Amino acid sequence: MLDATNSSRSPHDAGVGKGELALSIGLLALALIVLWQTLEIPVSPIYARVGPTIIPMMTAIGLIGLSAGLIVAALRGGWQPDEERAYAVDMRALAWLAAGLMANILLIGPAGFTAASVVMFTLASKAFGSTRPLRDAGIGLAFSLISYFGFAKALGINIGAGAVERALEAIPGLF
C-alpha cells in the first residue's frame, strides 16, 4: 500500500525541476513569437477594437501567463510527481513523432497536403505503438481528404493541392 505522505514530493524540498524549467522557457519563447507575429499583422484603420489580431493576441497573452506560472512551479521543484519521474522518456517514440512532423514539413510543398498528412499520421501512429501501417495510412487518407476538401471547397482556402487532390478534382461530378 502506498504511503500518502510519500506519494508526491514537497515542491520546496526538490530544488529546481530542470526539465520542467526548460519546457516552461520553451513555451515562453513560443508565446513571444506568437506575440511578435501578431504585432506584424497589418490592421486596417476600419477596425476600432476588434480586428484580425484579437484572437492571436489573447492566445499570446494566455501563453505568456501559462509559461510564467510553469516557470514559477519549475523553480519550486517542478510540477511532475515522483511517479511520473520514474518513467524514462521513450526516445524511440519521440523520434517517430519528430520524423512524422519533419516528413510533413518536407512533403507538403512538393507532394501536397494529403500525401504529407498520410505520412505524418502513419508515423505518428507508429510512435504510439501501432503495428498496422496500411490501416493507419487508410485512416490518415480519410481524415486528410476530409480536411483538405473541407478547407478547399467549403471555405475556399487552398492548403496545398498535390497530385492526389488534383486527380480527385479532375473526376467530373465528384465536387
Explain what you see.
The chain is an all-alpha fold and 175 residues long. It is built from 7 helices and no strands. It folds into 2 domains: 82 residues; 79 residues, no CATH class. It is 65% helix and 0% strand.
Please give a quick description of this structure.
With 175 residues, this protein is mainly alpha-helical. It has helices at 18-39, 54-75, 82-85, 91-111, 113-127, 133-155, 163-169. It is built from seven helices and no strands.
* Helical content band: 55-70%
- Give the radius of gyration: 22 Å
Could you tell me the mean pLDDT?
86
First-to-last CA distance: 62 Å
Give the number of helices: 7
Biggest beta sheet summary = none
- Write the H/E string, N to C: HHHHHHH
Residue fraction in strands? under 5%
Low-confidence stretches: 1-12
Silhouette: flat
Give the oligomeric state: single chain
Per DSSP E runs of 2 or more residues, the count of β-strands stands at 0
Number of domains: 2
The secondary structure category is mainly alpha
